[in-house]
Amino acid sequence: MTEIHELGAAGLAAAIRDRRIGCREALEHYLERDARLNPAINAIVARDPDGARARADAADAALARGETTGALHGVPMTIKDTYEVAGMTTVCGEPSLREHRPRRNAVAVQRLIDAGAVVFGKTNTPRMAQDIQTYNRIFGTTGNPWDTARTPGGSSGGSAAATAAGLTALELGSDIGGSIRTPAHWCGVYGHKPSHGIVPLEGHIPGPPGTVAEPDLAVGGPLARSAADLALAFDTLAGPDAMRGKGWRLALPPARRERLADFRVACWFDDAFCPVDADTRRLLERAAAALGNAGARVDSAPTPPAALREEFELYERLLDAVIGAGLPGKLYTKARRGAALMRLLGRTRPATLGGFLDAATQRHKQWAVCHERRERRRREWERFFGDHDVLLMPVTPTPAIPHAQDGNLFSRRIDVDGRARPYFDQFVWIAPATSALLPVTVAPLGTTQAGLPVGVQIVGPYLEDRTTLAFARLLAEHVGGFVAPPDYKED
Asked: What percentage of the chain has pLDDT greater than the value 90?
């Protein structure tokens, strides 16, 4: 018998519409799993069971009257604790926000609720969503359901862990530094980073509560157990905000291809600037071989618009400018002084403290130069996708890393086939698509010899999100899709 959580969001929504499963029944199933299974991984950190039960009962009553709210009617889900949810705390791992209880939902959250979703909990993040691991002083450490000694990633680590463990039917994450993509990769689930600017981020922390400006690079998007569920959530989330909606509508093109055999696939799997470990490379190449066997046209030596090092250095300048703009006044002043000293000492290389301080406090003229370079690069990517439909890339150089909370982002190291590499290498492969504002779907490819999941970035042309989502769905037919972690499979 298929358990409720095994249906996924789309399957559960269909079962609810057909009256095979009740909304309250679905919610109680997830609440029971949360109580029984969450303590081992600490993915869900805040709950509103009474409010969720009231909403589930109202959804059941509506069905009894022959009414449905939308495509997610009665589907229980959790939300990354960077999004404001009315009546629940939104902490984002930050001690000063421990009692922050917003009165309104974030725009993206409201869209899910308007479509019928029943939000019952919030999932853990690193402090202010600023790490590739998920831990903070308020809620503690989140473990990876495949191996609790390892991180699920960050900053949507709680989101991905809860999804993989079957504690939620769907999740809403956010991404500026791979924060949807890396957790999806490390937890073996699907994630989608939309084209920039089509899913409103109002009500997301950071910036500070009350921020209405859309930040550069950052996007909101779903995590799920299937590409079909991603597409369902994406259709719910995407669209202009209320002010822009007065004058324009989002009309994304359909997927370029309907059959895997018709896709033109570029594969960029390794680079001397950021080597990928053997297990990851093996699974990527196995996927490429499967695509070739399915009839797809596979280009194993594409020529991207720029070298990986150049892509990363541009991305870092743009990212650090966003982070610097959010620094409190006194801290920003200290950062400017530190940057001046680092420039004097010649210590402003990328991926170092000096490089961060320099980029975080750069003048607007310097940022404008980077922005112009980015816009030219984006046009080069558009030409690249004239010859290719999708580009496949690693997400990070390795599968999930062990918890490593000592030191900081500049001092930590990771192991890549026995060689110590900078912690910042984990941000390198996500850089090109982020700075170019491109859509990316992450899909699982299988597990390493050590039993850890590996995913792949499916990068597509700007505003052609449906192409990457369709490719992820078709890819699962040839390499397999989501597989539950061993401790979370049904008997």
From this structure: 98
Three-state secondary structure call for residue 109: helix
Any catalytic annotation for residue 159?
A: no
Q: What does DSSP say about strands 190-193 and 440-447: parallel, antiparallel, or unpaired?
A: antiparallel
SS3 label, residue 459 = strand
Q: Is 420 helix (H, G, I), strand (E, B) or coil?
A: strand
Tokens linked to 161: 């862990």
Spatial separation of the C-alpha atoms in residues 310 and 373, rounded to whole Å: 11
- Report pLDDT digits (tens) over 437-455: 999 999 999 999 999 999 9
Candidates 122, 155, 174, 435; catalytic one: 155
d(CA 418, CA 44): 34
Give the rounded distance of the alpha carbon of 260 from its chain centre: 24
Known catalytic residue at 179: yes
Cβ count near 180 (within 10 Å) = 33
Rg of the chain over Cα atoms, rounded to whole angstroms, equals: 21
Task: Identify the active-site residue in 179, 195, 226, 435.
Answer: 179
CA-based max dimension of the chain: 72
- pTM for the structure as a whole: 0.97
Q: Based on the residue annotation, tell me whether 174 is a catalytic residue of this protein.
A: no
Q: Distance (Å, rounded) from C-alpha 472 to C-alpha 174? A: 19
Contact 111, 125 (CB under 8 A): no
- pLDDT per position as a tens digit, 218-230: 999 999 999 999 9
